[in-house]
């Protein structure tokens, strides 16, 4: 039931976003704050995401497994930075049936602790390494801030990879490889450009040595973290006794990492690409890539349906996700709105004229362009879809680039961050105390430090005048 | 690390079962009772199961979705038989961070209530029906009985389908279709024969009008429920206000069903097919279908590895799940044990003789048969695998048939059920009071009543002498 969107994207981004997601039947509210219902149309985008990501993981030798949903409180407490990070936002199971439990059980906020307990039993020798394990599941974090579909939920669809290595080099390489897998996914499949780098001391994961991140820029120029990969060093292997006999028959603590991406990436894609008519889906993540809508009058019915079916059969045989909507209960105009709302990349209208001329009329969702082409030209539909994918990415990339401001002036730095009008790139000392002061004064945080070494924008820190250590991106975020 | 199995299958079925599952690295204990860890080798069997089942569901028009993990207590209470059934075994979340929650939240024991709350919002008209939705997730039931890997856990991997229809006929047809999908899966993929029918009043699902079931017979002649499909009538649609405007513009309550199969089916497969050397996997569920083990001495090394690789490449190109184990740290003998333990259907040994004669030596796991064949014969490997699949099913079916005893004598009926030595088929009145008495006297329950009408074994009930209504299967179960 495609209600039109009443809130404009440029007027109220989150109001618009909620309307688009609800009207396009991607998600719905449940009766519990922060717990979304993923409707079939939205869940199919997550299934496609899982398909692409899972294939990339398996190409790197990663295997899937499944670890318990509930984690004893004592496990979470074993790594001291980790427990500090997560305890305030844990949902606790305290009763089983009518009985009080002896120990509270956390509903999985993340699985480092319970997985590494198993790893310590399984890993005995260098021959057991590397151990590369991933799981697809949901995690629960009892957010006290305002929750939002995909971007910040109390329950979140995600995957968490947890790998163990004999050497630091292998561990760091894999940690960096996985953030690149995420970048390839968001850019290649979601057509969402991202910045890639590592987090500051304040922003890194509880228990990590170094956190790598990819960050997207939203239409309001807020930053949004789209995936992270944590190098854990031996912090957890020492806490959980994950060690192995090396080739010299000596016990060594192992090097570990963990990496995760959640359905938040889909929310970011919706924010980046959607417009005031609804979703605008890049072809590679669209559950339906082409919709065919027959326009029928009594006289033309048989020939129009026949021709529509012929188009459907051709596209199907080419491996395109195509839908033919023949329903009589809805008018063509209603269907046009419906599939615009649902962001279907290409719409083919079939009427008497098309049948007679053996042609097709196609409308491209993302730029509104209408064109006619001979039936035979449909054989190139896959090229057309990948062309749309590229153009959507290029458009998003130029918007992202225009949202980043390189800054050398302290007053201007503060003013921009306070207003949230841009992402700011500046020379920075990297000091956690400095970062806390920036946060206090502007409400913004450092988003990332580029992975590759860059020439410094300035010799001194933009905020505290200490010597600059690297360039960093700062910005507001949800 | 393949420790040999010390407990024999015929001496202690569950002791043997646990050893096989642990040694073959299918599952492991976690530190919480009833919560298993699914290791990569075991989880891959579940991934294959999901793949086959999901395809069958989608062929019937079912879409996947995801609903919240946590369910308000008030939802569970809305359907009175349902709450009676589930409340004693619910894990309750009572705290979020440091705060006590206003209302307890159940960790999903099953999702009828939370899904139908959404359905009541989404369904407005006959045009919205049928609505066919499935979700893959885990459910938690706080079992107080002894828990067992796969067969009875507190957390269980499964899927739950929940469909809504305008008419009773469509709803019943789909309910029966889905139990047949499960039968096709257990018999066709797991090579586990099952009995199919419906449950007695005592044994049906809380809130169902009729529960369909498939039941496998374990080697100790206990029965095990492998999948169920529940026709819910309008019990839930009335409790959750799931109604639609029909073509005459009148409000009608909808007809519903729900159907689920869990990873228990994998446990049953292990019990049915395994032997005293470990797992014995039917080819269609085996993560590795063929393992190639080169037997190397210094002289022959290059040619043996080359020939092994040639076999690997051929099998790979034929779409076979093949593994070449070239590791030097383990001896061929160690590897033979390892892959027998892991139940790999076919093992190919490659030594100097094989290379010279351009032949292969193959051992079939399930019957221990060794044979030699020319290299070219490997082109027929898929036929060989499907032959093994059929033979394993046929063997299991004849064992199942021999475990079923048709009974007319009351004393003998009671004696057999008490001892659990066989599944008993007998004429029965179908009265819940009679069933409760049978349970009290024998500890066994009715397992199912065949779907198709059958000639009655006797005119009167085997237990209470009332007129018999149908034939029923009785047996012990875990």
Task: Describe this entry's structure for a reader.
2 copies of one chain form a homodimer. With 478 residues, the first copy, chain A, is α+β, with helices and mostly antiparallel strands. Helix content of chain A is 35%, strand content 27%. Chain A contains 14 helices and 23 strands. The first copy, chain A, has helices spanning 13-23, 40-59, 73-76, 80-86, 112-122, 168-188, 235-240, 264-273, 301-317, 332-341, 352-357, 381-402, 410-419, 432-442, and strands at residues 27-29, 36-38, 63-64, 70-72, 91-96, 99-107, 131-140, 155-165, 195-198, 210-217, 223-233, 243-245, 251-253, 255-262, 290-294, 322-324, 346-350, 359-364, 370-374, 404-406, 423-428, 445-450, 470-475. The radius of gyration of chain A is 25 Å and the shape is globular. The two termini of chain A are 30 Å apart. The mean pLDDT of chain A is 96. Chains A and B meet through β2, α2, β3, β5 and β6 of A and β2, α2, β3, β5 and β6 of B.
Count of DSSP-assigned helices of chain A: 14
Overall pLDDT level of chain A: 96
State the CATH topology of the largest domain in chain A: BirA Bifunctional Protein, domain 2
Radius of gyration of chain A: 25 Å
List the helices and strands and how they pair.
2 copies of one chain form a homodimer.
Chain A: H1 13-23, E1 27-29, E2 36-38, H2 40-59, E3 63-64, E4 70-72, H3 73-76, H4 80-86, E5 91-96, E6 99-107, H5 112-122, E7 131-140, E8 155-165, H6 168-188, E9 195-198, E10 210-217, E11 223-233, H7 235-240, E12 243-245, E13 251-253, E14 255-262, H8 264-273, E15 290-294, H9 301-317, E16 322-324, H10 332-341, E17 346-350, H11 352-357, E18 359-364, E19 370-374, H12 381-402, E20 404-406, H13 410-419, E21 423-428, H14 432-442, E22 445-450, E23 470-475
Parallel strand pairs in A: 3-7, 15-16, 15-17, 20-21
Antiparallel strand pairs in A: 1-2, 4-6, 5-6, 7-8, 8-14, 9-10, 9-22, 10-11, 11-14, 12-13, 17-18, 18-19, 21-23, 22-23
């Amino acid at each position: 039931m495609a209600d039109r969107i009443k809130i404009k994207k440029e007027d109220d981004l989150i109001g618009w976003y909620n309307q688009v997601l609800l009207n396009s039947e991607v998600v719905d509210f449940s009766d519990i704050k922060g717990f979304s219902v993923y409707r079939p149309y939205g869940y199919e985008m997550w299934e496609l995401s899982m398909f692409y990501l899972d294939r990339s993981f398996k190409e790197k030798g990663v295997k899937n497994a499944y670890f318990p949903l509930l984690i004893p409180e004592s496990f979470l407490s074993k790594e001291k930075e980790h427990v500090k990070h997560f305890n305030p936002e844990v949902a606790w199971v305290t009763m089983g049936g009518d009985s009080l439990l002896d120990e509270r059980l956390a509903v999985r906020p993340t699985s480092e602790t319970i997985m590494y307990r198993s790893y310590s039993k399984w890993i005995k020798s260098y021959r057991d390494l590397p151990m590369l394990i991933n799981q697809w599941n949901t995690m629960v974090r009892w957010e006290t801030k305002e929750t939002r579909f995909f971007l910040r939920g109390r329950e979140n669809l995600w995957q968490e990879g947890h790998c163990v290595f004999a050497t630091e080099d292998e561990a760091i390489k894999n940690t960096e490889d996985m953030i690149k897998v995420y970048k390839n996914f968001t850019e290649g499949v979601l057509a969402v450009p991202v910045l890639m780098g590592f987090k500051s001391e304040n922003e890194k994961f509880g228990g990590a040595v170094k956190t790598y991140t990819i960050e997207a820029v939203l239409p309001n120029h807020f930053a949004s973290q789209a995936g992270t990969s944590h190098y854990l060093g031996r912090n957890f292997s020492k806490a959980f006794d994950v060690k192995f006999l090396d080739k010299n028959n000596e016990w060594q603590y192992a090097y570990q990492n963990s990496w995760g991406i959640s359905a938040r990436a889909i929310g970011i894609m919706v924010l980046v690409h959607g417009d005031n008519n609804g979703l605008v889906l890049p072809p590679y993540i669209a559950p339906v890539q082409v919709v065919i809508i027959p326009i029928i009058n009594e006289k033309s019915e048989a020939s129009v349906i026949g021709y529509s079916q012929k188009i459907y059969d051709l596209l199907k045989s080419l491996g395109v996700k195509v839908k033919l909507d023949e329903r009589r209960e809805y008018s063509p105009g209603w269907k046009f709105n419906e599939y615009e709302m649902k962001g279907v990349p290409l719409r083919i209208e079939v009427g008497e004229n098309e049948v007679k001329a053996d042609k097709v009329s196609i409308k491209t969702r993302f730029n509104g362009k209408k064109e006619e082409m001979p039936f035979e030209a449909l054989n190139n539909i896959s090229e057309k879809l990948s062309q749309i994918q590229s153009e959507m990415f290029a458009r998003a990339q130029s918007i992202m680039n225009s949202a980043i401001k390189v800054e050398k002036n302290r007053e201007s730095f503060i003013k921009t961050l306070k207003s949230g009008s841009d992402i700011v790139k500046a020379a920075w000392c990297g000091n956690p105390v400095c970062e806390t002061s920036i946060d206090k004064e502007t409400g913004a945080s450092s988003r990332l430090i580029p992975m590759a070494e860059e020439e410094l924008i300035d010799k001194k820190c933009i905020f505290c005048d200490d010597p600059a250590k690297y360039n960093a991106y700062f910005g507001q975020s949800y």
